[in-house]
Design a protein that fits this description.
The structure holds 2 protein chains of 2 kinds. Chain A contains 14 helices and no strands. Chain B is α/β, with parallel strands linked by helices. Classes of the chains: A mainly alpha, B alpha/beta.
């Protein structure tokens, strides 16, 4: 233990003069040079501007519906707390609230930023030139991921802060500390969720040589999960539903099975996580019997409990992102390097 | 030029499933020379180059590049070797200068040094006036020049050029070749270039290696290759004489250095082992015939190419 500590201390001490030397001649590490270039590419591209405009439009639209329905939303619930979060969740039914918008458009952002990550380098002939540089091969894919995720984080942060800022201006109510943290966690989960789709798109961009093919396959996966998946689950439910309910535990068990089926979809995980975070009155995600609800005091959950409730969903999203990244990593490392093939 | 091998390949083999792309290749390239890999498309030239850079793994055999093994120390090798791929690509939305600076950053060259070197190189390869334009506006030849600058900014010990003259007009090729030669002499760099263009290789290379179907058939200076190949009749004299009758032919064949005489229209092709133009002229004139034409014909790569790739293989 002590040896390990000494070693770490040594590393830290050794790190300092290196950093000084770096500042002197200012040669950045190749990894960060690549990240910077990728980010600059994204930020300068029309693609990013279009996505940002789309998201800004969404923000304005959802803010508008939220504000116009804020009055009724407050009247409905006696608990006057968490008024600020209503900006993100309130709706009149015509336009979805902000959190639904993010779950809908998030995948598009991820796919748009990742679908041509590797195959465009290949078709432009820059990949072989890049790989002939004295850098480890995995830098290429790692920097692409880091840079795109950073761009996503910037975009989400802009939108989140914009929502808060405009919200304060329009309602005149500042968010409480707890509300701020809830929004913070919501934005964090959104970044991870978009990261999942980003990784999927990067994986397809490695697998398929044509950007169009990889974009289409990513979109196909997205459509499958957002449209067809619930239908398929419904079919399974109809086929396997117990015909005669003998006791409550059977019913609850079955309900749990259906819910877990639905949770295969990342968007289900995301919406469970975000609604729980943004609507503190949600106390559980599973079925509740009347006995269980009977003694419960109606009231919002504290932040810690909300986070605890959706901890599995958040962990799963991170895990899915890492699994897909792992697959892309292996695919990329094993691929032949031929110019433009 | 010191005779120190900077690239050493021993029994290098690469198989893709059941196709053998490179077959037991043994080759040495020496410090400071320009070595040409010559062969038709699909002969295994690019595969060999990729293996030298550690971008693909050999199935069998040994490699040493600057004393390092590319399969296990690819990054160290890539620090010393500059590679210009066939159809080099640049980031089109960046300018030529920005592309060079990015490469410099990947090689940990400090920005100030990088900028100085980049400006000098762009000047040297002749695209300094377009350095700040986006690469998407560049022509094929300009991209190839930028490619040269791109590998030189790292100041490598070896540069490897894969089909550097592909798709460039003849004037561009001429300029590019003289540029490569100049750079190699000036900086003492070892150059390995692959091509299927005979004349370009002939113009520039100290030694060539002939590739057919993944095998190295022969390697050496072009003159030596020609000598090995045309050992029996290395020289060809074309003679036009009046009258060129059978008697003259038999008289010429009597010379000990002449291997054979072939009638080719009004001319005679004399295959001989040494340059005996003077003796032949004397023979003809002494015979009382009029000598109207006499020329010596060297074997170039074209003949070598034909022998190997059409007749030989």
């Amino acid at each position: 233990m002590r040896a390990a500590l000494n070693k770490i201390g040594g590393l830290l001490r050794r790190g300092t003069p290196q950093r000084k030397a770096k500042q002197a001649d200012q040669a950045p590490h190749p990894f960060w040079a690549m990240v910077r270039k990728e980010m600059a590419d994204h930020l300068n591209s029309w693609r990013f501007i279009i996505l940002l405009l789309l998201m800004l439009l969404t923000t304005v639209a959802s803010l508008y519906t939220a504000i116009s329905n804020l009055g009724s939303a407050i009247a409905e619930e006696s608990a006057s707390s968490f008024l600020f979060l209503k900006l993100f969740t309130a709706t009149d039914g015509a336009l979805p609230p902000f959190i639904t918008f993010v779950s809908l458009l998030g995948p598009i952002i991820g796919i748009a930023l990742g679908f041509d990550a590797v195959n465009s380098e290949r078709s432009r002939g820059t990949l072989s030139r890049l790989l002939a540089q004295p850098i480890p091969r995995d830098y290429v894919i790692n920097t692409k991921f880091v840079a795109s995720l950073a761009v996503v984080a910037i975009m989400i942060a802009i939108l989140g802060l914009l929502m808060i800022g405009i919200g304060i201006l329009l309602t005149g109510i500042p968010p409480t500390v707890e509300e701020f943290w809830r929004i913070f966690f919501f934005l964090l989960v959104s970044i991870v969720y978009i990261g999942v789709w980003l990784n999927l798109a990067i994986m397809f961009s490695i697998r398929f040589k044509q950007p169009a093919t990889s974009a289409l396959s990513s979109l196909a996966v997205w459509l499958f999960f957002s449209l067809f998946f619930t239908m398929i689950v419904n079919l399974i439910v109809q086929a396997t539903a117990p015909t005669r309910v003998t006791d409550v535990s059977q019913l609850i068990g079955y309900q749990g099975f259906v819910q877990n089926l639905l949770r295969i979809s990342p968007s289900q995980l995301f919406s469970e996580a975000t609604t729980t975070l943004m609507v503190p009155t949600i106390r559980t995600l599973g079925p509740v019997t009347i006995e269980q609800a009977y003694g419960a005091i109606a009231g919002p959950l504290p932040l810690g409990q909300s986070v605890l409730l959706v901890w599995p969903q958040m962990t799963c999203l991170v895990a899915v992102a890492f699994i897909i990244f792992g697959i892309s990593y292996v695919l990329f490392m094993k691929q032949e390097v031929r110019s433009r093939l | 030029m010191s005779k120190e091998a900077i690239i050493e390949l021993t029994e290098l083999t690469k198989k893709y499933d059941d196709i053998t792309a490179v077959d037991r290749l043994t080759l040495s390239v020496y410090q400071g020379e320009i070595f040409g890999l010559l062969g038709p498309n699909g002969a295994g030239k690019t595969t060999t180059i990729l293996m030298l850079l550690g971008l693909c793994e050999p199935t069998a055999g040994k490699m040493k590049v600057c004393g390092l093994d590319p399969t296990y120390q690819p990054i160290l090798v890539k620090e010393k070797v500059g590679y210009l791929p066939d159809e080099v690509g640049f980031y089109e939305n960046l300018s030529g200068l920005e592309n060079l600076l990015f490469t410099a950053a990947l090689n940990r060259i400090p920005p100030a040094t990088a900028r100085r070197r980049a400006e000098a190189l762009l000047e040297q390869v002749g695209i300094a006036d377009r350095a700040r334009d986006k690469v998407q506006t560049y022509s094929r030849g300009m991209k190839q020049r930028l490619g040269l600058a791109d590998i030189l900014i790292r100041e490598p010990e070896i540069i490897i050029l894969d089909e550097p003259t592909n798709g460039i007009d003849p004037e561009g090729v001429r300029e590019l070749i003289s540029l490569i030669r100049e750079l190699s002499r000036e900086r003492g760099m070892t150059v390995l270039l692959s091509s299927h263009h005979l004349y370009q290789v002939q113009q520039i290379c100290d030694r060539v290696g002939l590739f057919v179907d993944g095998k190295l058939i022969d390697a050496g200076p072009i003159k030596e290759l020609a000598y090995n190949l045309f050992k029996n009749d290395p020289l060809l004299l074309e003679v036009e004489a009046e009258p060129a009758d059978e008697q003259l032919i038999s008289l010429l064949e009597a010379n000990e250095h002449v291997s054979k005489v072939v009638r080719n229209g009004s001319r005679l092709n004399i295959h001989c082992r040494q340059d005996i133009s003077a003796e032949i002229a004397a023979t003809i004139v002494n015979r009382g015939a009029r000598l109207t034409h006499l020329s010596r014909h060297d074997y170039g790569l074209d003949e070598i190419y034909h022998r190997y790739f059409e007749g030989g293989s």
